[in-house]
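for the recovery benchmark. tokens below, seq after
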């Protein structure tokens, strides 16, 4: 790949389209870096589409410090009303299936149509520095050079619930900053797909044409969640196999109960590398959004997701408050021993801890 020529005049990515007011806010921001900043500072920055301030606000969301969370929650509340005109697309598939190549190809197409795209991830096993899913920006080289693309790695390792909440909140801020198409990527490991599906409008499964039984190893539940199955790498010698796999998956989908959306899940072949099939996928997505907006499913699903998130957050908060309680911390191990020695039943041990 040819190296990009660097000009002395080029600005760093992320601050290249700031206005003079933004420039002022950025320098103000740096000055008060160590001090407390008002939520209004971030909200205004985000509304102006300032990427630096958006990134700082996301860092607050990801922080476990209580004072950061307080500011973050106020920013999120103010940004919520600004996030209505977006679409959120979930993408999953095993490592190597071509997710980032696909997002890059699809994302570049959307950008050429005037869209602003954000790429986020849910990867509970992620350790930022180790360059796991989306940790390594060079995976989407062309996209990361675009000013209308914003790529953010998964919040670093934690409980799936915690990582999912942070990603869901990050979506809100990205949308308030003007990003109208949000991709949420995850690896095919089961639970994280459910989390992605709980915060996206459309769920896409990337697959490869296998040599043997096409349906082997595919988790039925995940296929059932998909609005679209893309058989990727349908190019070169692989094309025939991919076409055959498409027919097989189409048959398999017929066996599933109809989707709540009223939409018939589709199977297509594509090549993220050559771009074949990408325009058709773009059309399919537009059809889906038109269809589900007309039958109101789009809005009902978002409402349901908000309620789901509320209960998920209650569960997370209760769990973390419980385990962080000092009495609980002090007695947990002792009670564990009592349970092991048969002195207490697990139920009684829990009752003691809950009272504390
Ligand atoms: P991810 O782990 O799912 O994000 O997969 P990547 O996008 O990193 O792709 C894994 C490998 O497959 C890379 O070497 C890509 O160049 C290659 N690849 C991705 N999409 C295609 C495709 O459509 N055709 C072919 N032939 N190779 C592809």
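predicted aa per position
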């Amino acid at each position: 790949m040819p190296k990009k020529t660097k000009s002395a005049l080029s600005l760093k990515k992320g601050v290249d389209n700031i206005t003079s007011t933004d420039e002022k806010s950025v320098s103000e921001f740096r000055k008060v870096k160590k001090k407390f900043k008002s939520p209004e500072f971030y909200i205004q920055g985000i509304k102006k589409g300032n990427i630096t301030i958006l990134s700082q606000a996301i860092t607050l969301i990801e922080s476990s410090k209580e004072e950061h969370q307080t500011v973050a929650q106020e920013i999120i509340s103010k940004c919520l009303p600004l996030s209505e005109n977006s679409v959120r697309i979930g993408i999953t598939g095993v490592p190597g299936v071509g997710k980032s190549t696909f997002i890059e190809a699809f994302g570049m197409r959307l950008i050429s149509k005037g869209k602003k795209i954000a790429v986020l991830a849910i990867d509970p096993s992620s350790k930022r520095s180790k360059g796991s899913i989306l940790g390594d920006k060079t995976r989407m080289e062309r996209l990361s050079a675009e000013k209308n693309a914003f790529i953010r790695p998964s919040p670093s390792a934690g409980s799936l619930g915690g990582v999912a909440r942070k990603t869901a909140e990050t979506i809100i801020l990205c949308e308030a900053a003007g990003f109208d198409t949000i991709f949420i990527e995850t690896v095919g490991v089961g639970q994280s797909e459910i989390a992605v599906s709980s915060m996206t409008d459309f769920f896409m499964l990337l697959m490869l044409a296998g040599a043997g039984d096409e349906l082997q190893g595919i988790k039925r539940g995940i296929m059932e969640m998909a609005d679209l199955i893309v058989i990727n790498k349908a190019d070169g010698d692989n094309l025939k196999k991919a076409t055959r796999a498409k027919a097989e998956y189409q048959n398999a989908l017929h066996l599933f109960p109809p989707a709540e959306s009223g939409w018939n899940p589709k199977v297509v072949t594509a090549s993220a590398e050559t771009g074949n099939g990408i325009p058709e996928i773009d059309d399919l997505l537009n059809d889906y959004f038109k269809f589900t907006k007309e039958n109101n499913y789009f809005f009902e699903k978002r409402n349901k997701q908000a309620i789901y998130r509320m209960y998920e957050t209650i569960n997370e908060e209760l769990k973390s408050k419980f385990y962080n309680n000092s009495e609980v911390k002090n007695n947990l191990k002792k009670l564990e021993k009592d349970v092991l020695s048969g002195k207490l039943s697990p139920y009684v041990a829990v009752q003691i801890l809950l009272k504390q």
